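Late entry, evening session. Most of the bench is empty. Finally got around to the prediction I had been postponing all week. Sequence below, unchanged from the version circulated by S.P.
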Amino acid sequence: MSIYDTLNEQQRQAVYHTEGPLLILAGAGSGKTRVLTHRIAYLIDEKGVNPWNILAITFTNKAAGEMRERVDQIVGFGSESIWVSTFHSTCVRILRRFIDRLGFDTNFTIYDTDDQKTLMRDICKHLQIDTKIYKERNLLAAISAAKNEMVTPQEYRLRAEGDFGRQKIASVYEEYEKQMQANNALDFDDLLVKAVQLFQTQPDVLDYYQERFRYIMVDEYQDTNSVQFQFVSTLAAKYRNLCVVGDDDQSIYKFRGADIGNILNFEKVFRDACVIKLEQNYRSTSTILDAANAVIRNNRGRKEKTLWTENGQGEKIEVRQFDSGYEEAEYIVGEIQDSVRAGEGSYNENAILYRTNAQSRLFEEKLVSAGVPYKLVGGVNFYARKEIKDLLAYLKTIDNAKDDLAVRRIINVPKRGIGLTSVNRVQEYALRKEIGFYEALLCADLIPGIGRGLAKLESFAALMEHFKAEAAGKGILELLEVILDVTGYIEDLKSEGEIEAEARIENIEELKNKAADYEESCREQGGEPTLSGFLEEVALVADVDSLDENSDYVILMTLHSAKGLEFPHVYLAGMEDGLFPSYMTVTSDNPEELEEERRLCYVGITRAMEKLTLTCARRRMVRGETQYNKMSRFLKEIPLDLLSTGATFAAQEKEEEPRIQTSWQQARQAFRTKAFASPKPVQQFKVAGGNGPGYDVGDRVRHVKFGDGLVTAIVEGGRDYEVTVEFDRFGTKKMFAAFAKLQKI
């Protein structure tokens, strides 16, 4: 029996079509990774293609790792010659070899978001930009958008003629690029932009890679932006054997620059393209798929397809509406606990998905108080923690001393008595002489007015030169240990306090583990571990890559983070107009924005394999105000016969439009009340300086004796409010608000 006999008819067609442009429209859970891996095997086994000539690109390290593993299993000998990696990793490999043609050194540093913010702060200070008017994050977003469209600073300035605000951004963009070049650094956008520039300006480099990669496959094609499209189309222009796989119904990253037009217009760009649809789903029950199909059918900007499955009908979708977000969280956590206790599954079979990061707070609090293990995807990235960034800055300085940000970060970490005045004098000297910060440190004795700071600066420079010498003969793990030992970094942490230091030291140990893993995996693949390679791998890691499928914890994540994953039971929370779809989308005149939100809903529904629970609340706290919302319009697009409860919808139809109950609206309503209506009993105790207790159900509060707790109920009496609080250490207490003097935290 052939390995291709296990594929369905459409999958086989996609595998066997090897020459010319091919668009595979792969619905959620339709086995696209299986198709890609079998297609690679077919090219090698049946078509005699050299593994060296195959490139497979995807978006996340996790997806690339899974594909790499499957390719190795199915292809066997020679599979190591196939490039299977993300867009960014692919570009880094090309740039490490040829970026010197563009005026950079091949040991360039990759800047993450925090590095970019630090650099932008320095640029705004240098150019005397008012950051109240031109916010740093907006400037970075404008630069990123320009790079994604391959617009250079010079072009940006020309397009901005007559627009003072955009001219200001052009000045910032020019200085940003100048500083990046001086620091021998690239941001994530640059990795793609510089690779395309390399192809456009160096014909021999382009020809080399076009000959190298005669067969190109791109996964998640609906998420590509303009520069990614430019990269793959340029690379594939010679042999035109470009196979793209994607689902326009799962295009949800417009805010990152993704252009759904790349997949919708593929046949217009490649007029001889073959289009194959994969509509059989292997993940979910037919009830879940019918709901997903019903929702996404309301979008106009899509290619028609309908998911189906042989998995059976499955359970109906459960819909629950609660009075508050707190009750919603309590119900979901209770359901998960009950199912695990009943032996119906483990914690890691459950995922709680939501539209915004802010929604995680109530779930986290409830999970903690219930003693349920959980993993929050999208919290503080491991590599964004201070101690990790400090140690990585040491490694970056050793690897690329031109990286001014890295050098300045560690010049006084741990404290060496090097003050800001000395640092500023070095910086001014470097700018005046047009040299790097580290280069200026090496000749610190020439800096006017450096005074008593000279000895300390020379000591730091000598230390870094010592580390550079050590790096030549040591592995990354050994080098890390030398840095920790010589600098006394851990001892310095301990001086801050034992409790604070413990968690940070654990993080440092985890970084050591990462270094050891990297060295081991390099040797297993027959390569040589390098400091540049380690820093590159760390820079390109994504938060979702840290998800350990073998650990038993409930997963909390936003819908954007959940794409590409699957779970037996999905809880999709906050299904309310004003939250999902968002208030901005509901009030927008642009129908494309609502269509993107609907695609996000489709993604959420299709993450569920066996059970799907959709929840919403009549009111919830949003940005400090109680918001009252209708049930989400997406819920109403699901046929009632697919739901375990349909009665709620009838009542919903009569509800008024989404509203936010601001203090102004409350006052207006009070003003409209009849003059002789019976007033409520007068409050004899003023609580928190207003008419209410100053906090609401679901808020965290602090009591002078009982400590921190969660407000579970507030009952208005004649003289005061009776408040019920579930304290973290002392259990549930009832008290009068005026005497309790609870402080909202």
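Two things to note before I forget:
Confidence is low (pLDDT under 50) at residues 646-664, 666-690.
The two ends are 65 Å apart (CA to CA).
Will write this up properly tomorrow.
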